[in-house]
Design goal:
With about 140 residues, the protein is an all-alpha fold. Helix content is about 75%, strand content about 0%.
Length: about 140
């Protein structure tokens, strides 16, 4: 039996880990913001409203982000634009403090979108590099 040659691995990319943490943190922050906004900080009606349910769809991708699933990062980067749109509309039309919370939502959406797209790009780049290194190691 011959031992298979060791396949060189590219060095660990700290950018992938960083974008994963930023995406997770901004998603969690967005969930907390949506709940606090509609239940405590500036509800449409005193005592809170059913608008707090808007945080529920954000909980669905949380498991995929925590499990580091590439597909989840891709579709979150598309779905987040619904929350961005709500933030912009309420940022222009609501009165403070709801207006400030809306702009915070917009900022978190932009951070989450950027983290997700960078994460996907970095992982694809690393996969290509690993594939190239594997092909080079196999031919040697």
């Amino acid at each position: 039996m011959t031992a298979s040659p060791a396949i060189p691995h590219p060095p660990a990319d700290h950018g992938v880990a960083a974008t994963r943490w930023v995406a997770t943190g901004s998603l969690l922050a967005l969930i907390v913001l949506c709940l606090a906004w509609e239940l405590v900080l500036a509800p449409v009606r005193p005592g809170g409203t059913w608008l707090a349910i808007k945080a529920l769809p954000l909980c669905i991708p949380l498991a995929g982000i925590l499990k580091n699933r590439m597909y989840t990062y891709r579709w979150v980067s598309l779905v987040i634009w619904l929350y961005f749109t709500e933030g912009v509309v309420r940022g222009w039309s609501d009165k403070p403090p709801s207006q400030w919370l809306a702009w915070a939502e917009v900022a978190l959406c932009l951070v989450l979108f950027t983290a997700c797209t960078l994460h996907v790009r970095l992982r694809q780049r690393n996969a290509r590099a690993a594939e190239a290194a594997g092909a080079a190691g196999a031919s040697a």
